[in-house]
Amino acid sequence: MGIHKTFLIFGLAVATFAQDIATKADAFMQQQKQFSGTVLIAKEGKVVFEKAYGMANYEWSIPNTVDTRFRLGSVTKQFGAAAILKLEEQGKLKTTDKACDYLPACPEIWKPVTIHQLLTHTSGIPNFTSLPEYAKIQVLPSRYEAQVKSVWDMKMDFDPGTKWQYSNTGYVMLGQIIEKASSKPWETYLQQEIFTPAGMTDTRADSNSEVIAKRAAGYAIKTGKPTNAGYIDMHIPNVAGALVSTTSDLYKWDRALATNKLLSEASLAKMWTPDKNNYAYGWGIGKQNGKTEQSHDGGIDGFSTFILRVPDDGVLIVVLSNFEDGKTSDVRRGLTEIAYGRAVDTPKERTEIQLDSATLDEYLGTYQLAPSFALVITREGNQLITQATGQGKIPIFAEAKDTFFPKVMPATIVFTREIGKVSGLILKQGGREMPAPRKP
User: Fold this and answer.
1) Stated pTM of the model
2) 219 - beta bridge partners?
3) Would you say residue 426 lies in a domain?
4) Is residue 35 included in any domain, yes or no?
5) What CATH number should be reported for the domain holding residue 420?
6) For the purposes of burial, counting CB atoms within 10 Å of the CB of 2, is it exposed (0-12), middle (13-18) or buried (19 or more)?
7) Which pLDDT value is given to residue 414?
């Protein structure tokens, strides 16, 4: 009798704790006025909170639900990586193989690149989504050719294996490698070897032509209101970002990984072993409070996403939004704090100050964030404007001299000086600091 009573008390305590997380998480989410999508918190491998907010379609006022499908963007990459590891288990390739052995053709300078280097963004192959002409590329119905040929004649960003630079081109190439090694379209291989075994019934490749049940429409936010997102042909992102899914399916994915349902221990160890810049196979690997975290975010026209796993605690945080700037970094930080019973800091309102035009002119120029990716600063009237390679214009506002912020996303730009003159900037975003020297 005493034992039963103990278990009853324990069960009530667990249920109360889970309810406390759910209550606090919902209260936090109600404060996130610029969020539309679904979120999920799991702890000790069990879902403790899952809820939808905003609209799946703002024109018809159709609400999001927990089974609404969202474009995953770069969260797709971990599934492409898992497919490569599955093919390795099946003896159809090795991650140490040269990537060009599985491709229809390659420039000579790409031939030393390995599959491992594509997976870890250490190949040195330029990123096609950073090109100025990307706006033209993204509307083409290309599964492989247009993406790869756009950087075909470019110099490598660096010698393979020596540095890290995010490259969607590499993951498009991985899609082609999956098809060559499996003799199936990459979508079919993922469906048969990953989604179906994991019970992920709502995950699939997106399509511009097919009718896909419960798929959210994607939006951008302008002047505080949703506007329809720009067009992208969903063949373009390929294994780099073309999947749609739900919070529930990503929970199933998490459980399949936790129980070795899809991959062996050796393959999972390889998937989560970081190379440079703490990036492994489709996952960023970090440490927080002494515990390993596995995470990735995603951004694609109309959508922003995030997934975080803390294996030691069975914690999973999923944020799926059908706003391009769904404030996913703010949301996931808050939900993570709540999952661990910690207080959520309320972000301070950023105060804008006015600088004279002569001071603003000191910041104008091009700042090189990567060999093929730059941030151009211009002035329109008394407004500074930033434009990243292949992206739209974003106004930035002075918080102090040399410190600016955009209002459409959580980020800070700090300009650096040498001998009194602006010599570069540091872009602070998503917990990272990215320095960029000013081009002469």
Assistant:
1) 0.82
2) 228, 323
3) yes
4) no
5) 2.40.128.50
6) exposed
7) 93
pLDDT digits (tens, 9 = 90+) for 401-439: 999 998 877 688 999 988 889 999 998 875 567 788 998
Residues 6+ apart with CB under 8 A from 50: 38, 39, 40, 41, 66, 247, 248, 251
Encoded amino acid at 18, one letter: A
pLDDT at position 347 is 60
Domain that holds residue 396: 357-437
Who's near 100: CB < 8 A, 6+ residues apart? 106, 110, 111, 113
The pair of three-digit structure tokens given for residue 435, joined into one six-digit string: 């320095």
pLDDT tens per residue across span 212-229: 999 999 998 877 789 999
Do 161 and 96 belong together in one domain? yes
Specify whether 120 is located in the same domain as 253: yes
Domain count, the chain: 2
The reply to whether 251 falls in a domain is yes
Q: Say whether both 309 and 381 belong to one domain.
A: no
Task: Let me know if residue 351 belongs to a domain.
Answer: no
Distance CA 257, CA 337 (A): 23
Quote the pLDDT of residue 128: 93
Distance CA 255, CA 247 (A): 13
| Residues in CB range of 55: below 8 A, 6 or more apart | 36, 61, 62, 63, 64
